[in-house]
Amino acid sequence: MCGIVGFTNGKLNIDNNKVIENMMNTIGHRGPDSDGHFSDEEVTLGFRRLQIIDLSTDASQPMYNEDDSIALIFNGEIYNYHSLMDDLIAKGHTFKSQSDTEVIIHGYEEYGIDILQKLRGMFAFAIWDKKADHLFIARDFFGIKPLYYTENTTDNSFIFGSEIKTFLKHPAFKKELNKDSLKPYLTFQYSALDETFFKGVYKLRPGHYMIYKNGKMEINSYWDINFDAEENTLEYYVDKIKETMEESVNYHRISDVKVGSFLSGGVDSSYITALLKPDKTFSVGFKDYEGVFNETNLAEDLSKRLGIENHKKVIDADEFFDAIPTIQYHMDEPQANLSSVPLYFLAELASKHATVLLSGEGADEIFGGYAWYDKTNSEKKYEKIPFFLRRLASNISKALPENRITNFLVKGGLKVEEQFIGEAKVYKEKDALMVLQDSYKQGPSPIEVVRESYLKVKGKDEVTKKQYIDMKHWLPGDILLKADKMSSAHSIELRVPFLDKEVMEMAAKIPAHLKVNDKDTKYVLRKAANEVLPDEWANRPKVGFPVPFRDWIKQEKYYKRVKEVFEAEYTKEFFHTETLVGYLDEHYTGKANRARYVWTAYVFLIWYKRFFIDEDVNVTK
Asked: Do 161 and 124 share a domain, yes or no?
């Protein structure tokens, strides 16, 4: 886990070295071990280092080639760097370090942009090529590492980096709220557009690279997910998963510092832990909610069976609420996945014992683990009716009052492209429009956000379409972003062995019926995991990272805490206050479960206050 930041030198008369140092210090949590920067007449680059591989100063960054014509800043890990290094040495390249960083430099010299096809790992990097007079910026296949960029500056400079908060330290950056981002956020629970909540600040998409030259950028895709099923037996794919996952975990364990693993009660992190067999595992739960919002005893039990030392923490409501402003600061944009909070505390706990942690993110998307991917028995029976009749019933039901039956009929007459936007779906669009002030209603609809992705999987089965949508939106926008930001907040590196290029290539061939069927979701993965896990772990239903927020805001203390924010003067800029408070009151009195509506709005308001109202936004505690 490291931090990168850079900018092209604009017309504003500034001290580039001082500015880049201020920007680097803003992300000191990403790299507390060392820093470095580079500046010439055209670009300025900065780096904060968390030492993982080759702890010597030879691996410091920015890193240069032999004649200093190439400068690199790099965040991530390249797991196949040993074989790449051997290949490059055979081709005549000379290495001064044993780091994966230097492999990218010499790989770029040898292969140019095609080096991206040879990398196996997670990364966001920028190369300043003096001879070509361009910046080459790239982000990994799945979006494990973040990369933001902007031209929204007063001096036409171009800024990029691991975290948006660094941009705030550049005197030419124009800090403005992107009004189009709020409406889709209320439904998706995360920043769902390429343009972030900061106007003119964009995310470089996963699997994409950029060439920036003479004030112009060219962005291209170099990799995409390609689901191409090949029929074979269950046993064949169980063996393939075992073989590929063992190899991936072995790659992901490579480190010159201590390695541990996050462990919940679910199959994904349990499988990774069983393959890794680290010295220590780490778990969190919530006080007074044993067995419901607290699976730490399950994690402790499995650790004992595997002969591993387990460390756990129990979080109370006060800790939860007090941490929200800091968490949203680290997230850069409002992010309403409740699991971000326990993940923050989990990373804090782990940071006291290890620097590299392995986790189970990505398994649900790759192997079909979400309940959304399956259908109820009633839905399966209903689908036997011809679609045109279900379509007619759906259209009629849309005009009727909402209830369980009409909702069922509406959904039953919709194609997957018309109803599925990803694992998270909080506000219905009509409710979002009702609660928002007029100037914040113009953002795209949820279906518009995912439309381009659906075109890429036209003709595929429904499970595959849903997997692709989640992997292009939910995974990088929510799951991986919180994993990166919450781990980096505590100066640790989180690795995700399921999200490996070779694992993806193998999993893309598994037919949908072996992933999701009448027996289970993630069926074939559970069978593979069962080889090293007890039955109760391999077959345990998915519960995610449950948080008792819905219970807490029925308590007067926390109800009032949320209500105070909803009734704050600045809230009126975005929301109809009476509608928000109405949702909160409905939940408090037990009339309806409005916990996610309340939480999603609350998080945005806490984030906005931190970045646009508080005097010193860069105070982390």
From this structure: yes
Sequence-ordered list of residues with C-beta below 8 angstroms from that of 511, at least 6 positions apart, any chain: 229, 230, 231
- Do 158 and 274 belong together in one domain? no
What is residue 50's DSSP assignment? -
Q: How far apart are the first and last CA of the chain?
A: 20
The 8 Å CB, 24+ separation contacts for 386-392 are 387/413
Structure-block tokens of residue 350: 């782990």
The predicted-structure confidence for 135-175, as pLDDT tens digits, reads as follows 999 999 999 999 999 999 999 999 999 999 999 999 999 99
Beta bridge partners of 209: 138, 220
Q: Is the pLDDT of residue 290 over 70?
A: no
Binding residues, by number, are 100, 284, 359-360
Which pLDDT tens digit goes with each residue over 266-280? 899 999 999 999 999
- Residues annotated in the binding site for L-glutamine, as ranges? 100
Query: Does one domain contain both 523 and 608?
Result: no
Q: How far apart are CA 460 and CA 515, in angstroms?
A: 15
Neighbours of 125 (CB within 10 A): 27
Angle at 483 between CA 354 and CA 32, to 5 degrees: 50
Residue 476 domain flag: no
What distance in Å separates the CA atoms of residue 339 and residue 596, rounded to the nearest whole number? 12
Catalytic center residues: 2
Band (pLDDT 50/70/90 cuts) for residue 621 is very low
Tell me the whole-structure pTM to 2 decimals.
Answer: 0.95
CA distance 276 to 246: 8
Helix-then-strand count for the chain, H and E: 26, 17
**Percent helix / strand / coil, the chain, rounded to 5:** 45, 15, 40
Asked whether residue 440 is domain-assigned, the answer is no
